[in-house]
Specification:
Blueprint: H1 4-7, E1 11-12, E2 18-19, H2 24-27, E3 36-39, E4 45-48, E5 52-57, E6 60-66, E7 87-92, E8 98-102, E9 107-111, E10 117-121, E11 144-149, E12 155-159, E13 165-168, E14 174-178, E15 202-207, E16 213-217, E17 220-224, E18 230-231, E19 243-246, E20 249-252
Antiparallel strand pairs: 1-2, 2-20, 3-4, 4-5, 5-6, 7-8, 8-9, 9-10, 11-12, 12-13, 13-14, 15-16, 16-17, 17-18, 19-20
Amino acid sequence: CCDESETSILKITEEGFLSAPNGWNSFHPIVGQLRVFKADQNGTIYASSGRAVYAFENQQWVLKAGEGSTQVDTTPVSPLESQFNYIVDFDFDLDNRLVIADRGQAVVYQIKDDGLLHRIAGRRYQYTQQDAADALDGTFTRYIEKLAVDSQGRILVAHRSNGMIRRINEDGSLSTVAGRGSLNATQAVGQPAENVRDLGNIYRFDVLEDGRIQVDGSSQEFLINALGNVERPANFNYGQKHVVRSGMLWGLQDTL
């Protein structure tokens, strides 16, 4: 009935880009609502609408988590039955499973081996900044902004406004990596990142392949190395999971 340009929602080009035909919003409104784009370890592009996470598979967006009616607390649920308040960011663990930060509920979720979505850190709607031996007893503010998984599988969470970087550790604890100290990043070079003061607004945040954390906060740009110490900043370069949009094209950072 129609030619391909009229019926396609999105395409993968020969260069590996995710592209859309003209008028794509009118054919698939959900695409216009997608905000966060990242690629998993297999190169599949995922995106979040704030209420759900989708993957672009077989030339279409496939729901992976959200749009359900159950908010996850102590009992894990199927990702497709889950309900989020506001997904501000997501990433993938070392086993390529989704990790999701919900700003509205101030919690972090993860899909585990059982295929269910678990709350792994934060207490729902408890907006403080409490570290804890058990991350489930710790808390985040309502200003969660960024989430990333480092090369050791630890989950990093960056706060906006009262800028801190928090970490869900391998032992299940929740700790502060940076933002509670008294020094600016320049003064703290060579010292533990815990000595860095409130970062203010965290504009950009990512983990490099070598495990270093890149931070771009209010007038404070720096790196945190594998030892947890501050290094001088370099040109900010997003990691391989980051997906950027250029016009009507989506692709990995190093291909656009």
